[in-house]
C-alpha cells in the first residue's frame, strides 16, 4: 500500500515512513485562513476547525488518486483562541508569552479519503502546560531555535529544545507532533492495508 499524504509536513511523512508505511507526498494547496475564519465566524470549536482543514486537504488531492489519501492538520487552542504559525521571531515571542504559565490544547486531525470520499477520521487532543520561564531564557530560546520553530503553530518543537518550556504534558506524543499515529495505524491494520 502506498498512502498519499496531502501535507507538506516533513515530520508527518517521516513518522509514517519510520512506522513502515510507504508514503507519497502530495501537498494540498487550500486557503486555510479562509476556511478557519469562516468556521470561527460560525462559532465552530477548535476540534471542528482542525477536522475541516484536514478534510479539505484530503479532498483536494483525492480527486487525483483512487487509493488512500491522508489529510492532516493541527490547531493550537488557548482559552477559545486559535494560534497560527509565527512568521517572525517577534510573533514567536508573542505566542510564547501568551502561552507561558498556561495550559493549551493541540488538536491533531487526520482524515482518510478513498475513491473521492471520506472513509475514516480522528482528532487527537493533547494538553500542554508551559512553565513560567524567564524572559532571558525566552529570548535566548528564540535566538537559538529560529527559524525552525516557525514551522510549529506554538513556536516550539517538543522533540527538540522546546521540551524545556513545559511543566506538564498530557496526551499522545504523536498527536503533539501533528498526527494521531496510533489510531491511524490501527485503522490501516484492521483494513488489511498494513500487516498487524
Distance between the termini: 14 Å
Biggest sheet overview:
7 strands, mixed
CATH class type: Alpha Beta
CATH architecture: Alpha-Beta Complex
Number of strands: 7
**Proportion of beta-strand residues:** 25-35%
Tell me the radius of gyration: 17 Å
List the total number of helices: 7
Low-confidence stretches: none
Provide the domain count: 1
Tell me roughly what share of residues is in helical segments: 25-40%
Describe the structure concisely for a colleague.
With 196 residues, the chain is of the alpha/beta class.
If you had to describe this structure to a student in words, what would you say it looks like?
The protein has 196 residues and is an alpha/beta fold. The chain has a single domain, classed as Maf protein. Helices cover 38% and strands 27% of the residues. The chain has seven helices and seven strands. Helix 4 (89-99) crosses helix 5. The two termini are 14 Å apart.
